[in-house]
């Protein structure tokens, strides 16, 4: 997956999680407020209505009972009396769902009881209606804000994405590489510019190091070829002398073989210095020959060693 897609996916995922958490908080808050209105505020209103009635009754005994569209009051000896389903209720609040969603508040004062029956169904519908509308508006505002934040975040990271694509295609070995185009002319951004300039400086230093390495390898290889050639020519002349004993001839052969190995190594260094994309040449080799050559070098280092070796094909 490309880096810019990973960044955008993470941004989208984080914003979606934020939207879910905020939506959950808004929904819980609205429904909690709805329950607060239905339970607490209505109960406080009924308590206040009962207290106000007892005050009126104290000033004018037998005061008229409250009677509105959603509130009906009952008291012994007044009006039509107390319904049978309310007589056994104790002081306090008594919700009921039959026949309608009602809340009955029983208030007692001086041995007299006041029954306030409130039809909460209509109020609950209004509370739900006025709770859903703010909820919908709040969610719309939240989603719109998160969408705008996502667009702004994408605009903020788009220069980084372009910069990442350019860095991905940079070739440190190319001395003619173009400078990084860090941002569009109509979108100045100092942070991205500083990052691009730092990367450009790093690339320049890497190119300089690579060039110095190639130059050193090339010069060192050229300098080594001359003495190696002289050594090989001198060894070849000595080997043509028939007066050499067997031990001296064997030593000279070892010197010539080592010189040829060094010449091959310097040639490989020169090839790598000329072409940075070309690696070491590959070829089939015989492991027996390699093992024999290494054993021969070991014998030169430790001629008096008592270790005996034998190579079998």
Provide a compact summary of the structure:
Helix content is 65%, strand content 8%. The protein has 313 residues and is an alpha+beta fold.
Keywords:
6 helices; four-stranded antiparallel beta sheet; alpha+beta; 2 domains; 8% strand; 65% helix; 313 residues; Methane Monooxygenase Hydroxylase, Chain G, domain 1
Give an account of the 3D structure.
This protein has a 4-stranded antiparallel sheet. It has helices at 3-59, 84-87, 120-168, 190-239, 246-274, 287-301; strands at 71-75, 92-96, 102-109, 112-119. With 313 residues, it is of the alpha+beta class. The longest helix is centred in the N-terminal third of the chain and has 57 residues, at 3-59.
How many β-strand runs? 4
Determine the strand fraction and express it as a percent band: 5-15%
Query: Number of DSSP helices?
Result: 6
Strand order, sheet with most strands: 1-4-3-2
Name the helicity range. Answer: 55-70%
Which spans have pLDDT < 50 for at least 5 consecutive residues? 183-187
H-E string: HEHEEEHHHH
Rounded to an integer, what's the Rg over CA atoms? 49 Å
List the helices and strands and how they pair.
Blueprint: H1 3-59, E1 71-75, H2 84-87, E2 92-96, E3 102-109, E4 112-119, H3 120-168, H4 190-239, H5 246-274, H6 287-301
Antiparallel strand pairs: 1-4, 2-3, 3-4
């Amino acid at each position: 997956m490309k880096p810019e897609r990973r960044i955008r996916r993470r941004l989208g995922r984080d914003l979606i999680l934020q939207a879910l958490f905020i939506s959950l908080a808004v929904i819980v808050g609205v429904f909690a407020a709805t329950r607060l209105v239905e339970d607490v505020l209505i109960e406080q209103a009924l308590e206040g209505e009962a207290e106000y009635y007892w005050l009126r009754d104290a000033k004018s005994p037998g005061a008229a009972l409250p009677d509105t569209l959603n509130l009906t009051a009952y008291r012994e000896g007044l009006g039509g009396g107390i319904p049978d389903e309310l007589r056994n209720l104790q002081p306090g609040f008594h919700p009921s769902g039959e026949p309608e969603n009602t809340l009955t508040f029983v208030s007692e004062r001086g041995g007299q009881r006041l029954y306030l029956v409130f039809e909460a169904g209509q109020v609950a519908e209004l509370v739900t209606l006025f709770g859903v509308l703010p909820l919908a508006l709040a969610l719309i505002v939240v989603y719109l804000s998160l969408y705008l934040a996502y667009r702004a975040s994408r605009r903020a990271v788009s220069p980084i994405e372009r910069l990442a694509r350019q860095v991905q295609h940079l070739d440190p070995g190319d001395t003619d590489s173009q400078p990084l185009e860090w941002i569009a002319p109509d979108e100045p951004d100092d942070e991205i510019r500083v990052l691009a300039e730092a990367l450009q400086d790093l690339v320049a230093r890497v190119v300089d190091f690579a060039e110095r390495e190639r130059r050193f390898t090339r010069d060192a290889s050229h300098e080594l070829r001359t003495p190696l050639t002289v050594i090989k020519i001198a060894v070849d002349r000595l080997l043509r002398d028939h007066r050499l004993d067997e031990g001296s001839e064997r030593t000279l052969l070892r010197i010539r073989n080592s010189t040829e190995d060094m010449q091959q190594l310097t040639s490989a260094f020169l090839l790598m210095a000329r072409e940075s994309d070309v690696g070491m040449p590959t070829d089939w080799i015989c492991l027996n020959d390699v093992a024999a050559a290494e054993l021969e070098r070991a014998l030169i280092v430790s001629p008096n060693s008592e270790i005996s070796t034998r190579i079998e094909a």
